Predict the structure.
Amino acid sequence: MQLVHILFVLLIAPFNVAAQKFSSLDLTLKLAQERAYLSAKTDWIAVEEEARLRALNQGEDAAIKFVLKSLGDRHSFYRPAAKPVFRPPIALSLKTANFTAPTIVRTLSEVKEPIYGVPVLKINGWSGTHQEAMIATSALRFDLMKELAKSPCGIILDFSENTGGNMWPMLVGLSPLLTEGVVGYFKYASGTVKAIEKKTDGIFIQGSRHVLNDASTLEPVNQVQFIAIVVGVNSASSGEIVPIMFHGQKNVRLFGQRTFGVPTVNSTFKLPNGGFANITTGVTLDRNNNSFEKHIDPEIESRQPLKDAAMWGLEHCQS
């Protein structure tokens, strides 16, 4: 009788695994297979089997985290519902294997002490509501105009501690520094390419004007002669993408160290459980169609990038 019972349990267990419904896990698997940039390189049979076992033994959240980590892009991550996002210190979160979530501060831009008289504007990782984004974009533009008024020759933009978040307040706020025309592209797994363009009245995405352009109309009086951008090991996600939008512009140089290496496009999907699956769906290209799937190597590697950037800028202005 005991043997019959054991055989019954063994026979019914696989059925229970298949029959158990995990709606958020199911949706994550579907989205990841259809939309993830590295979907074609993923063994989905093995991933799904392991994910369903983890859902049964560890819970659905653990299974979803496993699926997104299995993509191997180091940028996809899961944000559970109604739980604080764990953001470890930068030294831990970005120097270890996978990107988790950006270390966000509430102030997008900070005016720092000038270096050799050259103004320095620090651009932080940032995220917030649409209303907050409008305010942050306006504040960044105001800081930029104020600093350019002090030294119209040029400026240093410090992205070295920018771990990501919403890229659009950063890009729109800094858009007066960009030359007109296409500044970059997003290329998706489907092959779709979206152009990001600077026009006289702001930033456009595939021909559509970005709503944050309405945050500020301030423009510099004179054309900026040089723009030095500082990046480092803690520059990640949009902290890499925005510098890429400047990459290849004639009056721009990137200083510092190799970046963290996730300058990829994430799309956020709300799940039935109230959580969010953030899936890497594309890569970033600069204005010259150079693809950035991993880190950025600055044109001028430096252990003292702010000083070297200032010296380069001063030479540029005197030439």
Notes: The CA atoms of residues 238 and 249 lie 18 Å apart.
